[in-house]
Amino acid sequence: MSMTHISFTSKLAADVALRAVLSQAVGLFVVLVPLSVLLTYFMAEVVGADAPYGAALATAALMGMGCIALLAGLWRGAYPHDRLGLCNVATAIRGAGICVLAGLTLVPNAVLELGWALVALATLTLFLDGLDGWLARRSGLHSRFGARFDVESDVAFSIVLAVLLWQADKVGLWFVAIGLLRPAYLFASIFLPALRIPLPDAYWRKCMAAIQMSIQVALLTPVVLPPFSGIIAATLLSVMILSFAVDIRWQWRQLDLSK
After folding, report:
1. Higher pLDDT, 74 or 16
2. What digits encode the pLDDT tens for the residues 98-137?
3. CB proximity list for 214: less than 8 A, separation 6 or greater
4. Into how many domains does the chain fold?
5. TM segments (predicted)?
6. Can you tell me the distance from the alpha carbon of 10 to that of 80, in angstroms, rounded to the nearest whole number?
7. Spatial separation of the C-alpha atoms in residues 225 and 17, rounded to whole Å
8. DSSP one-letter code for 194
9. Sign of torsion, CA 218 92 66 63?
10. What is the mean pLDDT of the chain?
11. pLDDT grade, residue 160 (50/70/90)?
């Protein structure tokens, strides 16, 4: 068998796999987008929002942008498997939950009015964060695409929760910084070569992310009130800044050692 034939066969198999994954992703989005929009509208309507369609439109816009970004990533061949898998389905559902929560930031007093219903939605979204990684390892569908999908979902989730907590007057606007730490870190890496040095996998880093989001969800509960909520939030932000500082210090040391 010639190398040309082998190359053609491999390319054909890759194209077939790509089409299969894209079709699965499109099918998933066809279901998730209307469901997430309807859920946002329903929750906004329940609390008597003046314009529940505004929140629903915000969710629709965010879902649309997310779908386009994910499909573009798949189209570029960033995903190496021939099926989407339950792991990425779980992450996509989690993304839809984040979009619903983001849409509800346009509803005045959403945290106070929805109470435990909003906490339940945030808790489910958080649970899916742990489930998708377990499913990826169990199915052998772990990939850099999935890992990036998961990390960026963490960032979005953190920002949305911080905004909801600020709107509920449980924390100050300063707490939104907790969701901006990673974007700021990535932006700084454009100018600082040290920050482009790959970090080794570390279990403690994953634990910190899980603890951060868990505490943010706990702060949403009706039983956690100011000033206690502000003290917890300030402590959490300080710890997360310290965790980033630990990684940055390691990267600077690696840069010094390479000189």
Report:
1. 74
2. 999 999 999 988 888 899 999 999 999 999 988 888 888 8
3. 126
4. 1
5. 21-43, 55-74, 86-108, 114-135, 172-195, 231-250
6. 13
7. 51
8. G
9. negative
10. 88
11. very high
| Calpha distance 70→73 (Å, rounded) | 5
Helix axes of 144-167 and 177-189: crossing angle, nearest 10 degrees: 140
What tokens does 55 get? Answer: 């929140």
State the Cα torsion 36-37-41-47 to the nearest 10°: 40
Q: What token pair was written down for 177?
A: 């910084």
Identify whether the C-beta of residue 99 lies closer than 8 Å to the C-beta of residue 157.
no
Q: Write out the residue range of the structural domain in which residue 61 sits.
A: 3-258
Q: Which residue has the higher pLDDT, 258 or 96?
A: 96
Tokens of 215: 């505490």
| Secondary structure (DSSP) of 118-175 | HHHHHHHHHHHHHHHHHHHHHHT---HHHHHHHHHHHHHHHHHHHHHHHHTTSS-GGG
